[in-house]
Amino acid sequence: MYNRTFFAVTGMLALRAARDATVHLDTVPIPDIGPDDVLIRVASAGLAPGMMALLAIGAFRHLPTTVGHEAAGTVEAVGDYVDRGLIGQRVRVHPMLSCRSCTHCRSDREQMCRDAAMLGHAAFGSGQLQLYARYHDGGLAEYVRVPHWLVDVLPDNVSFDVAAKVWDLGNAVRALKQAELSVGDTLVITAATGTMGTATIKLAHFFGAGRLILVGRSEERLAAVLPLAAVPVETIALESLDEDWSTTQGLSTRIREVIPGGADAAIDYIKDGAATSQALAGLATGGTLVHMGGNLAAIPFPPAMMMLNMWRIIGTRACTRTDTDEVLRLLAQGAVQADDLITHRFALGDVQNGIAQMQERSEHLWMAIVNP
């Protein structure tokens, strides 16, 4: 399969999460692979905005661990039960671990599996998480070991950097599908200048959006994302609203000034505060709010108001293999160009700087890549 002595002696550099919820670079052995495994030399790995927050709340169930659920690279070695034709192939890792046999896994909802967890990331399931116990180490390292069924061979025109962010693009696809837009609908996207917001802007027109209303912190940052859209766009900067907008329905009022009848749908990536509920209040009758931000703020509306307006509220987390397959198809066809979404690149040795920038958001940072 491969020269185990060489790998054991040299080791590899990896970003490790410790039991005290800190992360640090360390040299660890290159993983041994089993009969169903693939060893990938990592060329690109994604930095996820929510990684440190999930680590802090204990969502990483196996510590210490190598973090990073987004990775792409070249297959270095395969196990005895894996097609040797994969060796040397350019691939991405699909990070979702699940049982692969339950009702959810068989109906394109594997993120709802009792054993759902993510390689190099958090665990969400309530089951035994046996696969997670073996494959909890992720891709912010020089090598990563994965089961062969989580490897996607890349189209020739897809770079490693873009391949590492296919997961985020797949999450945007999942949110857009949940919105169930009709052709020409008006869609609100909150946190539009972040990783998920920019991915959704890029893909929205493929799922029916005919007009976008982008909500972000500042006019400057919103202006920077306008070239990503393929349909007419209007923007709402929170800094332009009255200081008391969060308690006076300032955002929902502005949405209805832009589109008096209300928006057909909103995809919400806001992590805290009143913008989520006010995006809901800005919907037309029958509108849909899709939430993927993890906002803990309560929605201050009685159920009767949701009933009268016939609003749908859908929570969603993560994407499925079907969603990422759709992204890879669009990329392979040249229908989507995603390189412009990657604004920051860091060496593995400089990954702590990258994490700091992701958390501070002092720069225009959409997607960040680490190149080991």
Write structural notes for this entry.
InterPro entries: ADH-like_C, ADH-like_N, ADH_Zn_CS, GroES-like_sf, NAD(P)-bd_dom_sf, Zn_alcohol_dh. Keywords: Metal-binding, Oxidoreductase, Zinc. Pfam families: ADH_N, ADH_zinc_N. This protein is α/β, with parallel strands linked by helices and 372 residues long. The protein folds into two domains: 196 residues, Quinone Oxidoreductase, Chain A, domain 1, CATH 3.90.180; 144 residues, NAD(P)-binding Rossmann-like Domain (Rossmann fold), CATH 3.40.50. It is built from twelve helices and 18 strands. Strands 3, 5, 6, 9, 10, 17 and 18 form a seven-stranded mixed beta sheet that branches. The longest helix is centred in the middle third of the chain and has 14 residues. The N terminus is likely disordered.
Please supply descriptive tags for the structure shown above.
single chain, 372 residues, alpha/beta, Rossmann fold, 2 domains, 7-stranded mixed β-sheet, 12 helices, 26% strand, disordered N terminus, zinc, GroES-like_sf, metal-binding, Zn_alcohol_dh, oxidoreductase
> What's the CATH class of the largest domain, please?
Alpha Beta
What is the ordering of alpha helices and beta strands?
HEEEHEEEEEHEEHHEHEHEHEHEHEHEHE
What is the molecular shape?
A: globular
Distance between the termini: 23 Å
What fold name stands as the CATH topology of the largest domain? Quinone Oxidoreductase, Chain A, domain 1
Number of strands: 18
CATH architecture of the largest domain: Alpha-Beta Complex
Share of helical residues = 25-40%
Overall mean pLDDT stands at 94
Strand content range:
25-35%
Biggest beta sheet attributes: 7 strands, mixed
Q: How many individual helices? A: 12
